[in-house]
Write a structure and sequence with these properties.
alpha/beta, inorganic pyrophosphatase (n-terminal core), 2 domains, five-stranded parallel sheet, nucleic acid binding, Diaminopimelate Epimerase, Chain A, domain 1, 19% strand, 40% helix, DHHA1_dom, six-stranded mixed sheet, single chain
């Protein structure tokens, strides 16, 4: 993770100072890092005496973000023409309007700041960009911004930022030997009151029993390809109807399958509708799944990416295996 430069800190500080109201929005299908970075940014601008609205297209399916749903809206607060001139948009944990999903209102033509850590990020023209692909989470960037613009982080904000950091790092399991600055930043959050044990229980606990059955179904459907280096599994619409969509635990699925001997990458294809699927990609080591995800209109990180694609499970899986044959 790169430390924020003084130029970046000043640019962000000036961005906050010259506006009175902020729309703060992350990507659709939000995860913990997305939601927590939004909330922490709201706390930041509030500390600077500004007003804000948190926006999300949802859905809030994940157990660890359910408690925050009532803080967000999918409809922009109405502003007069004069008020809009003094307003701005902060996009976090993604960089493209399309990734924001269905928000009721016009987010275009607002002074915009993008805070992101995705390798495939491409921001709107003219936006202030604070993008660091070496950062493990958007919350890690927001923490540095908060400390630079506001100062020491209070307990509630520290808890929010620590939760987001832990979700995107797999509770630090995905970090490597170049992550000293991340651990230093995390230690400051703990010093401010974030509780690692309570955060772990919050992120991993409270899953509906039905999600354990759904996990078993996905495990039983898993198939190995490319001499065991790739595992692909899926979830059908029948699975979703039988076991529900609330509290899905794909992270546990990836962890279990990546632990298999020889396995370097795991793909999870979920049939969302008759003609569309979402695809999750995870990998170990130097296998760059973001390059494969890009072939299906998605992107993300080297070891964790996603995509939405038209098609059905049975037709997509051969295409996915073909793309992985080029990189494994």
């Amino acid at each position: 993770m790169q430390l924020l430069t003084e130029t970046e800190a000043k640019s962000f500080r000036d961005f906050i100072d010259r506006h009175d109201f902020f729309y703060i929005c992350g990507h659709k299908e939000p995860d913990g890092d997305c939601i927590c970075s939004c909330i922490a940014l709201g706390m930041l601008v509030q500390k600077k005496g500004k007003e804000f609205q948190l926006l999300s297209a949802g859905p809030f399916k994940r157990t660890e973000i359910k408690r925050y749903e009532n803080r967000f809206s999918s409809s922009m607060r109405f502003l007069s023409e004069e008020e809009r001139k003094k307003s701005a948009l902060i996009i976090t944990d993604c960089s493209e309007y399309a990734r924001l999903g269905d928000i009721d209102g016009d987010l275009h033509n607002l002074d915009t700041c993008v805070i992101d850590h995705h390798k495939t990020a491409s921001a709107p023209e003219g936006a202030l960009c604070i993008i660091d692909p070496s950062s493990p989470a958007a919350c890690a960037i927001v923490q540095i911004l908060y400390e630079s613009v506001v100062g020491p982080i209070p307990k509630e904000t520290a808890e929010i930022l620590f939760t987001g950091l832990c979700t995107d790092t797999g509770f630090f399991r995905f970090l490597e030997s170049d992550s000293a600055e991340v651990f230093k930043a995390a230690s400051r959050l703990v010093s401010s009151g974030a509780n690692p044990r309570a955060t772990y229980d919050f992120i991993t606990g409270g899953k509906p029993y039905e999600t354990r059955k759904l996990l078993g179904s996905a495990l039983s459907r898993a198939e190995r390809y490319l001499d065991g280096k790739l595992i692909v599994t899926s979830e059908t619409t029948d699975d979703t109807q039988k076991w529900g969509a609330e509290g899905r635990d794909s992270d546990a699925l990836y962890t279990l399958l990546l632990a298999s001997e020889k396995t370097l990458a795991v793909v999870f294809v979920r049939q969302e509708s008759e003609h569309s699927c979402t695809i999750g990609f995870r990998s170990r080591g130097n296998v760059d799944v973001s390059a494969v995800a890009a072939k299906f209109g998605g992107g993300g990180h080297k070891n964790a990416s996603g995509a939405s694609s038209s098609g059905k499970i049975d037709t997509l899986i051969p295409q996915i295996v073909k793309e992985f044959a080029r990189v494994l």
